[in-house]
Structures are given as C-alpha cells and as structure tokens.
Amino acid sequence: MDSLTQIVLGAAVGEAVLGKKVGNKAMLYGAIAGTIPDLDIIANYFTDTVSAIEWHRGFTHSIFFSILFAPVFGWLIYKLERKQPASWKDWSWLMFWGLFTHPILDSFTTWGTQLFWPFGYKLAFQSIFVIDPLYTLPFLVFLILTMMQKRDSPKRAQYNKLGLTVSTAYLGVTLLLKGFAYNKITQNLKDQGIDYKEITVRPSPFNTILWSANIDVGDAYLIGNYSFFDQQPIHFSRYPKNHQLLGDLSAQDKVQRLKGITEGWYTIVEDNGELYFNDLRFGLMSLEPDEDRFAFSYKIQPIEGDVVVEETPKLKRDAKLLLSALWARMWGV
Question: Which segments cross the bilayer (predicted)?
Fold first, then answer.
C-alpha cells in the first residue's frame, strides 16, 4: 500500500500496543515501523531491474524480518527514550507489530508479499489497489481523533479501536466484492462461449467497484473490465502470448526470473526490432478496447551473451487520461 496508509496503520498499531504507557510516542514509532519495510526500494539504486523487482516486498516484508529486527529496533528506541515508562520488551513488541502488519496489509494487493521469505511463495489476495481512499481516509480521521485525546481518556482507545475495526472490516468487504466480481466475469465467459484455463481478478485503481480480469485461453490472454453498475455484457480484448518471439533469449537467467515474477502472466511484443516483455498483472495504460500498452513493460536487449532489462517509462499524461476514463467506467459508462 502507499506510504500514507502504512504510516496510519503503523501509528494505530503502535497506539494499540503501547499508547497507554507512552502516549503519542507509540504512534510515532509505530508509524516509523510501518514505513521501514518499504525502504527496500533503495535496491533500485544499487542493482539491476530484475533484481530490484525480486527484492521488492521480499525480505523486508517477511515474518523473518519482523522477528529478527523488532528486538534491534526496540533496543534502539529503549536507549533513546530512557525517560519513558516502557521496557525494551515493550518497544520490541511495538516494533514487531508495526513491522508485521505492513506486509499483512500488502498481501491484499495485486503485487502481494513474500511473507514466508526465503520460501518463494507469494501471498496476494488481489482485493485492494495500492491506494484506496475508502480504506485510508476513515482510518486517518479516527487516528487524528485519537491523537486529540488525553493519554488516559477512554475515548482515545475507543477511537483507535474504531479505526482498526473499520479498516479491517473494509478489507473483508473487498474480498466479498472480489468474489461477486469473479462470479459475474466467469458467468459472462460462459454466456459468450469462451473456454479458459485460468483467470485472475483484481480491482482497478483507487476503488473496488470496477474490476479487471486476466483470462488464459491457451495461445492468448483475454482482458476484460466489469463494474457493479454495468448493464451490458463484458467486452474481452485478446492479446496473443507470442512467447515464441523470445527464441533463445527465453533461456536467459533474467528472462527466466521475469517469468517467475509474473507467474506466467506475460506477453511478448516485437516493435521496430525491439522485444518487450509485458507484465499482465497490473493491467493496461488505458481502458480503450484496442490498447496495447501495459502498465509494466520491459525492453529486453541482448548484449554479449546476456540480456539487459529496462522498464519502459510511463507518461504523466497517460496517467491523467486513465484516471478520467476510470471514473467514467466505474459507473458503468
């Protein structure tokens, strides 16, 4: 999830764990704990594209990381906050839950987390977009109300508990909404006589009303969008896999790793003699039926027996157009 959301969650968790003892300091260090796992983006500056993708939401988002580093961070805070009536164990407990709830929340997104690192299994419920105002804003309001109360006020605990309860309940609702969307999409496939091997369903950006589906039909993928306000059958656009275009490059280590990252959901496109590896998991750059640009696409360049992988840049103009189209499409237009 986005940084603000993780800060809010971390602060609320910190308050729940240690707020009665240390007041707003619990929120402060909880917010810091909620931010730490996302420092894995630093890898972008020190390694190649594929390694950075693998590192993202890996080690720092694992149970192992939370268990290993919570006592370390707890000890540092204990030394800094000697005047506070909290022990090393207290601070370590706060840091553990601040660190651990971060990847738990991220596991509901499309990217998911390697919660069980070093094991390769990725946990991804794919029921919420990385930025969802309906999750974050009510949570933030309750957190602010909590901060405004005195440490020993009963309302302080009540507001914080409400924030945690409402946000957690919303996560449960997103799973139910995904189930409804899945049923509608699969029914549309059946009605249109489309046989398929596998299907994944995920929310579109910033909402849980409009859902997108990737469908494996053998030699191609279908992509379709469904809104709860739709009155017409779903239109499915077809994208040939074209995996054969990789040729001998398919055996290259970085290409193999990209395949693993996408869990097989990718297409290959040749454009002006250049090969592009498209990650289908995060959708297209627009909602137009003939759109062929993907949100995450990588140019594959063979160089001296190896390959260089470069992520293709995104234009701000495309993002603005997509947001406008999403707003209209969300309401069934």
Answer: 58-78, 90-111, 123-147
Tell me which of 126, 141, 174 is where a domain ends: 174
Same-domain check for residues 15 and 147: yes
Residue 302 CA to chain centroid, in angstroms?
31
Does 89 reside within a domain?
yes
Whole domain around residue 273: which residue ranges?
Answer: 192-333
Closest CA to 300 of 291, 286, 288, 310: 310
DSSP structure class, residue 305: T
Alpha-carbon span 323 to 205, nearest angstrom: 8
Q: How many residues does the structure list for the chain?
A: 333
For 4, the 3-state DSSP assignment is helix
Considering 130, 147, 174, which residue would you say is the last residue of a domain? 174
| Three-state helix/strand/coil letters over 213-238 | EEEECCCEEEEEEEECCCCCCCCEEE
**64: which DSSP letter?**
H
Angle at 242 (CA atoms; ends 240, 243), nearest 5 degrees = 135
pTM: 0.93
Chunked into runs of 10 residues, the chain (333 residues) has average pLDDT values of 97 97 96 96 89 92 98 98 95 98 97 92 95 97 96 94 98 98 98 97 96 97 97 96 95 95 95 95 86 92 91 82 88 85
326 alpha carbon, distance to own chain's centre: 19
CB half-sphere exposure, 174, CA atoms < 13 A: 29
Comparing CA positions, the residue from 242, 251, 245 lying closest to residue 307 is: 251
Distance CA 259, CA 11 (A): 37
Helix (H, G, I), strand (E, B) or coil at 264: coil
Measured CA to CA, the distance from residue 326 to residue 131 in angstroms comes to 14
